[in-house]
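Input (structure):
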């Protein structure tokens, strides 16, 4: 059931984000429906490749079901977009600088990771893990920023609060799994059958939080008005 529901929830999140689009169309959040659609299409394409060797990205039968190239590209785009969002909406200058330096370092690690692991055939683990840590920290900084400025760390009608909560919960839960999978793969250790259901549950939880955020969100003011 989870194998189907997590792809469906990507599509549902995209639809709801478009329904609520008039509330944020003139802000940096305007690109987020594109990211959700990209997520849905990326997962859909990945599923097709896994099911059909004719759609493989490689001519060699050895890599028929290998889809890491599309997920590695996705990881970079996903992380850079959210770092851009946090840089825009964090009001503390120190926090803004953190997102800028984190972005530059993320790009540097992504470049170095290419020489450590094959970008087209292997998960870029170091890029993924550093990006995940960045987003966890940025989410925490956002809540602290709200606590200082609004006296309330979480806004019940603030979409960025929900996006931050979803990201923090997902990455805190999945980061240990990602690291464990890497070491298991390197040492030819079989993965527990419970790992994938936990992974998919974390995805569903994150996107359910996103959906609740879009349903409850208020109109987002343009950045000029917020400043």
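Output (sequence):
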């Amino acid at each position: 059931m989870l194998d189907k529901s997590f792809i469906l929830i990507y599509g549902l999140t995209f639809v709801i984000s478009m329904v609520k689009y008039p509330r944020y169309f003139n802000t940096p959040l305007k690109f987020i429906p594109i990211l959700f659609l990209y997520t849905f299409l990326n997962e859909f394409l990945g599923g097709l490749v896994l099911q059909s060797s004719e759609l493989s990205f490689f001519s060699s039968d050895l890599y028929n079901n290998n889809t890491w190239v599309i997920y590695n590209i996705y990881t970079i785009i996903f992380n850079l977009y959210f770092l851009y969002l946090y840089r825009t909406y964090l009001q503390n200058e120190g926090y803004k600088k953190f997102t800028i330096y984190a972005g530059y370092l993320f790009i540097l690690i992504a470049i170095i990771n290419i020489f450590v692991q094959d970008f087209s055939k292997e998960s870029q683990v170091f890029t993924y893990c550093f990006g995940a840590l960045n987003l966890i920290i940025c989410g925490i900084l956002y809540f602290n920023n709200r606590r200082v400025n609004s006296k309330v760390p979480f806004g019940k009608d603030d979409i960025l609060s929900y996006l931050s909560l979803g990201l923090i919960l997902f990455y805190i839960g999945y980061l240990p799994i990602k690291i464990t999978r890497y070491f298991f793969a390197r040492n030819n250790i079989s993965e527990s059958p419970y790992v994938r259901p936990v992974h998919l549950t974390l995805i569903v939880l994150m996107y359910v939080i996103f959906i609740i955020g879009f349903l409850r969100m208020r109109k987002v003011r343009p950045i000029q008005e917020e400043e």
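Notes: The two ends are 46 Å apart (CA to CA). Residues 58-63 have pLDDT under 50 and may be disordered.
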